[in-house]
From TrEMBL:
Family annotation (InterPro entries): AceGlu_kinase-like_sf, ACT-like_dom_sf, ACT_Aspartokinase, ACT_dom, Asp/Glu/Uridylate_kinase, Asp_kin_monofn, Asp_kinase, AsparK_Bifunc_asparK/hSer_DH
Protein species of origin: Vibrio galatheae
Lineage of source species: Bacteria, Pseudomonadati, Pseudomonadota, Gammaproteobacteria, Vibrionales
GO cellular component: cytosol
Name of protein: Aspartokinase
Assigned protein family: Belongs to the aspartokinase family.
MF-aspect GO terms: aspartate kinase activity; ATP binding
Pathway: Amino-acid biosynthesis; L-lysine biosynthesis via DAP pathway; (S)-tetrahydrodipicolinate from L-aspartate: step 1/4; Amino-acid biosynthesis; L-methionine biosynthesis via de novo pathway; L-homoserine from L-aspartate: step 1/3; Amino-acid biosynthesis; L-threonine biosynthesis; L-threonine from L-aspartate: step 1/5
Reaction it catalyzes: L-aspartate + ATP = 4-phospho-L-aspartate + ADP
Limits of the ACT domain: 314-389
Protein's GO biological process: homoserine biosynthetic process; lysine biosynthetic process via diaminopimelate; threonine biosynthetic process
SUPFAM superfamilies for the chain: ACT-like (SSF55021), Carbamate kinase-like (SSF53633)
Length: 450
């Protein structure tokens, strides 16, 4: 195993010149950091997604393009020698302009990925130049040269063997001489088309890259000093967790804790790479270590919230005492590449939630063709505006008594679906979006503050 560390900086960490300078200081502080993975500057991906969805109004389109230029200009203006970086960034902005025009005529997932990737392509030009000006021997690397994925635009899957082989050829040798700065979130398919790993995908990229180069550590620098007992924006009294196991942190990420992309810990776990999460604004505050072995495994560890849930309920009297019904349902879902998240069943009905959405955003939809095929089998009801609340902990399916505490705290809430038992690490349920934060706050007070 190499001795080097991979550091990932999220959007707010590279939001502007000052923020990028803090990242450079963090990189300088750890001589083992040989590889830096950066997100787009804060807000940029949202602007690009709007353009990619197709903005017909030309005034709005140029407004968005101006905002993009301003974000990057503000960094360029503070660089000592911005000539090359400005020319690189402006070349990308020209691409954004033409792609945005194309999207206003006909949007597509492939075009979206090409367009939204421009955020990371620009931020890495700026960060590399800033680091060079501080005396760091930095080199920018286009991660699309090695981060091979399939062609599932908007939520591409990495091709692990190829990534590893390509990283060995070109990325690892470069890291011997330079601190390499590269893009999170983006990759390319076998034909060389740009792809993305889904919103928030830079964490996942960083973990995939750390795995490919056999890094000894992965740091995720963000805007909070570690993983908290719940999103500190929802519960003021949420507190940071010093150490957490891979399984608990994976559950948190999967259940919507935005702090980590859901797939981030899979590569780290495969290669047993310890992950650190900290704040680039306040690195001195420390953060959370995610490891295999942890000292404490409390019954309740954290609460996570995932909104934009779509619940599908399928009902059919034919299901009663019949076999093969669920197999047929899942055959249809698989055919349409619909991934199911949670599921509960009764004698004649099954409720399921659709897996989260891709780069273009919004609630996951049940495609019309899939719905039509399901309707030949059963009745189909689709509900939106739901959020999933997850209580994460240890040995939950083997412990007694706590369900009473959880459910009596929630006695005023209408719980739409409850899932419990399959995993020892969680108990989760769906509630209406309008009360979801309140449910988290009440549970946090009861289970974590007393
Ligand atoms: P980045 O741009 O660095 O990737 P994100 O915005 O994706 O940052 O993730 C950081 C945010 O995640 C925090 O600002 C916080 O609001 C949110 N968050 C959600 N759940 C948690 C949690 N359990 N602990 C800490 N932060 C959380
Ligand atoms: N820039 C991308 C996003 O905003 C990826 C990331 O930041 O992780 O979703
Ligand atoms: Mg993120």
């Amino acid at each position: 195993m190499s001795s080097f560390n991979v550091a990932k900086f999220g959007g707010t960490s590279v939001a502007n010149f000052e923020a990028m300078s803090r990242c450079a200081a963090i990189i300088e502080n750890n001589p083992n950091t040989k590889l830096v993975v950066s997100s787009a500057c804060s807000g940029v991906t949202n602007l690009l997604v709007e353009l990619a969805n197709g903005v017909q109004d030309q005034v709005r389109r140029s407004e968005l393009l101006t905002q993009l230029a301003q974000i990057h200009d503000s960094v360029l203006e503070q660089l000592e020698d911005a000539t090359q970086a400005a020319s690189d960034v402006y070349e990308i902005l020209d691409t954004v302009t033409s792609l945005a025009e194309a999207a206003s005529i006909q949007a597509s997932k492939k075009l979206t990925d090409h367009l939204v990737a421009c955020g990371e392509l620009m931020s890495t030009h700026l960060l590399t130049q800033l680091m060079k000006e501080r005396g760091i021997n930095a080199a920018r690397f286009d991660i699309r040269d090695i981060l091979r994925t399939d062609s599932n635009f908007g939520r591409a899957e990495p091709e692990l063997e190829q990534i590893k082989a390509l990283a060995k050829q070109s990325l690892v040798p470069l890291c011997q001489d330079f601190v390499v700065v590269t893009q999170g979130f983006i990759g390319s398919d076998a034909e060389g088309n740009t792809t993305t790993l889904g919103r928030g995908g830079s964490d996942y990229s960083a973990a995939l890259i750390a795995e490919a180069v056999e890094a000894s550590g992965l740091e995720i620098w963000t805007d909070v000093p570690g993983i908290y007992t719940t999103d500190p924006r929802i519960a003021q009294k949420a507190s940071p967790i010093a150490e957490i196991s891979f399984s608990e942190a994976s559950e948190m990420a999967n259940f919507g804790a935005k702090i980590l992309h859901p797939s981030t810990l899979i590569p780290a776990l495969r290669h047993d790479i310890p992950v650190f999460v900290g704040s680039s604004k306040e690195p001195e505050k420390g953060g959370t270590w995610i490891r295999h072995q942890v000292e404490s495994s409390p019954l309740f560890r954290a609460l996570a919230l995932r909104c934009n849930q779509t619940m599908v309920t399928l009902r059919s009297a034919k299901m009663f005492h019949a076999y093969g019904f669920l197999a047929k349902v899942f055959e249809i879902l698989a055919k349409h590449k619909i991934s199911v998240d949670l599921i509960t069943t009764s004698e004649i009905s099954v409720s399921l939630t659709l897996d989260q959405t891709d780069t273009s955003g919004g609630a996951p939809q049940l495609p019309a063709e899939a719905r039509a095929e399901l309707e030949e089998l059963c009745s189909v009801e689709v509900e939106h505006n739901l959020c999933l609340v997850a209580l994460i902990g240890n040995n939950m399916s083997g412990s007694k008594g706590y369900a009473k505490q959880v459910f009596s705290t929630l006695e005023d809430f209408n719980l739409r679906m409850i899932c419990y038992g399959a995993s020892p690490h969680n108990l989760c349920f769906l509630v209406n979006e309008s009360v979801a934060k309140q449910a988290i706050q009440k549970l946090h007070t009861e289970l974590f503050e007393k």
